Amino acid sequence: MSTIKNHVQLIGNVGQEPTITNLESGKKVARFSLATNEYYKDSKGEKQTDTNWHTIVAWGKTAEIVEKYVQKGKEVGISGKLKTRSYTTDDNEQRYVTEVVADEILLLGTKGDK
């Protein structure tokens, strides 16, 4: 059970072109947003969509896969963990960011997708 303490699995669509950064150490990091949709019917019986946005971060080999194959609009599956970090703004305000650090990326959709 210890392997599921901090485990996230998401399937969604990439919201923007991934940003790839090459670090001085030679390691790559990829960042992109992922939209997940939940569908339900409201009190009138009409279909509604609730969209949640997630920030995805991938390192090393996973970032290289993102760089080669992941584009805006593509459906992907993500497996990873939640990571929260904090930073201080120029106005001296403390901010917190929660991201999904991807260990695995599954490319979904049809073979003909760009």
TrEMBL record:
Coiled coil: none annotated. It holds the Pfam family SSB. GO terms for molecular function: DNA binding. SUPFAM superfamilies: Nucleic acid-binding proteins. The keyword DNA-binding applies. It comes from the Bacteria. Homotetramer. This is Single-stranded DNA-binding protein. It comes from Gelatiniphilus marinus.
